[in-house]
Amino acid sequence: MPLLVLPPTSLLLAAGALSVGGLIFYKSRSGYVCPLGGRTFCGGAFSGPFRSIDLPLESIVQETHDTSRLVFTLPPGSKSTGLSLSSFVIATPTLKDGKRQIRPYTPISDLSDPTKIEFLIKNMPNGHVSSYMTSLKPGDKVPFRGGISSFSWKQNNFKSITLLGAGSGITPLYQLATGILKDDADSTKIKLVYGNKTPNDIPLKRELDQLKKDFPGRFEVEYFVNNDAEKVPNARQGQINASYLQNEIPGPSEDTCVFVSGPPPFVQSICGDKRGPFFQGNLTGHLKDIGYSKSQVYKF
């Protein structure tokens, strides 16, 4: 069951191309298409990579010692964000040195909310953009473009899915999980396996635990922490490994899929490197070792 389909060659040849920070989009009659068939979704506050909107920061709250939650206000009169499950936007701030930078961010807020959009941003060591974003004050404005998606979720396409994440890679997995669970017509069962360094380094833990309470039988979450696992209910010591995946998640079949998101070393160990924002690269790592095929794994 392939997740991504290459657009027809004729479409690409006839299309106009746009490059935003190295991301290439092709203009067709129906919207803006990324190289592997993903699509932006018109309507609402965001209406594609050609249109930039300046959003004022409404609030910023520290989530963990190195992550913050930033809420931006959407333009008055917006009917929705205009974003679909699962999608991201591109921030294009101009830093203090006068240089414009480009970074993709995945919203963690309700995509149907017409008033605001929220991001979880990790302040990376030597990360110029993340440092800039997490130093913003309420009222400061940031230009954004989007939305953009290389994967489009379909209701009940799988009986169950597994989400494997680490650190700030939780954002696309969280967006996907909440979008599925809030859709009464979607009965897909979800298991999230989430790795972090310590109990204090788990972003969105409160929300994830609440999802488990609100959707028993549909959503399960299990944590891995490198240190002090005994301080976290339902946590295991160490890192997500092949033995755990072999025994604790649904095995390879056409009825399931595994979604992976996290720092490059984590993704590489689980399923192999991703080649840029849209190209999945080869399947290697633990998931290949235990029998998954490339069509059963998606790397955010």
Textual characterization of the structure:
- With 300 residues, the chain is of the alpha/beta class.
- It is 18% helix and 31% strand.
- It has seven helices and 15 strands.
- A six-stranded antiparallel beta sheet has the order 7-6-9-4-5-8, with helices on one face.
- The longest helix has 12 residues, at 170-181.
Brief sketch in words of this structure:
This protein is 18% helix and 31% strand. The two termini are 18 Å apart. The chain has helices spanning 9-14, 128-134, 170-181, 205-214, 242-248, 264-271, 285-289, and strands spanning 16-20, 23-28, 31-33, 48-64, 67-73, 88-91, 103-105, 116-122, 141-148, 160-166, 189-196, 219-225, 235-237, 256-261, 297-299.
Attribute tags:
6-stranded antiparallel sheet, globular, 300 residues, disordered N terminus, alpha/beta, 15 strands, 7 helices, 6-stranded parallel sheet
